[in-house]
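Review session, final week

We close the course with one last complete record, chosen because it touches almost every idea we covered. It is Phosphomethylpyrimidine synthase, a protein from Natronorubrum bangense JCM 10635 with 481 residues. Go through it on your own first, then we will talk.
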Amino acid sequence: MVQTQLEAAREGTITEAMARVADRENRDPEFVREQVADGQAVIPANTHHEALDPMIIGREFATKVNANIGNSETTSNLEEELEKLHTAVHYGADTVMDLGTGSDLDDIRETHIEHSPVPIGTVPLYEAVKQAGSPEDITTDLLLEIIEKQAEQGVDYMTIHAGILAEHLPLTDGRKTGIVSRGGSIMATWMEAHGEQNPLFQVYDELCRIFAAHDVTFSLGDSLRPGSLADACDEAQHAELDTLGELTRRAWAHDVQVMVEGPGHVPMDKVAETVERQQEVCDGAPFYVLGPLVTDIAPGYDHITSAIGAAMAAQAGAAMLCYVTPKEHLGLPDEDDVRDGLVAYRIAAHAGDVGSGRPGARDWDDALSEARYAFDWREQFRLALDPDRAREYHDQTLPEDNYKDARFCSMCGVEFCSMRIDQDARDRADGEMDRLESTTNLEASPAAAVNLPPVGTHDTGDRPSLEDDGREQVTETTGDD
Ligand code: SF4
């Protein structure tokens, strides 16, 4: 009989996963256990996911970042999908959601789980639509069958759109952008076609039993999240959130871990209140937000519009940020978009951790600032969130090796380099610059691993690769540090 992390924590047991998480977060194992026992944090760790290096999601821990990958009808193959997983982990994804809707879904999912050191999440509803042929033709039995299969395959967390109810649908009528969640639009279509209540809500206790049997974590989908600033924090969103609070408590009664998904598009003045309301309604269950975008005017740059909201949400208590790429609203992201999206979100997560005063979070900033003021370019590159990009930009104008010791760069030039001018003046005054030295020791920092360079929580030098099992080997696509 499987014991979930939540059940073990409630019994007072510190599991191997909790001990590992405590080590990675630089926290006391007993504190980790208490947070899991109280539902304030989750360790998504399906018992069948053998390659997993356990991690924790909770507002008391370093803010985490999720990256979405997956194929579509027009792309892709097993090798490409594994490359996407590698790229996501390389650039610092703490979890990866496989949102594939194309072919070979089982094979791709099993390969991801086999090779992924980070938790894998899915949205089983997508596979149900693919098998049924249309949202209206989904059956409750099909939903249960797919969810159980994915649980047996080792999926660590699943987005379940059980919170959108038939009585919520009229509340969306006056919206500017209707229902923008894929899962939400599918469930709304089904309920309207059948004139019945959401089947995922109807069989929720059965879902809890399946999740408990494999220790799958719920990620309760926000089907009615706003798709525009105009729809943010409306009655429909809040009505669904109330149901998500109820579903959170029902899952906990089954010893099943829960996190709750959130918006979406939210103006800056409502980001903190959105987080606070979820924390109150859902009794502190970890909040996993998509962005939110704080303005709707910048298609092509929504990794920026959303990273602003994500940083604010992280500071306010959101536990995990789902990245958004520059292609949001426009097309399927490619590898460069994944990189840009993840870097934007690692910045947001880190800025949130600094802003909320997480232990040691600012040590990385201090170490880089010291290297910058000392004109230690190589150390600056090494500490940079994206070392390749930092080095590449410096090389564009000053590629020669001697410029890596120069007391200026091409931005202000040798004559107007303010740091050099400042240092020379101080030196002339009292010889202060002779005493210039780094004082920040990252080795001794109390920060979580995710808050220290190199970016992310995993060394992808040992990146996932296809075994010699007749499948094609993945080729290198990104330069490891
Ligand atoms: S030249 Fe300007 S940007 Fe470059 S190091 Fe000096 S102060 Fe900084």
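Two points worth writing down before the exam:
Residues 335-355 form the longest helix (21 residues).
Residues 468-481 have pLDDT under 50 and may be disordered.
Good luck, everyone.
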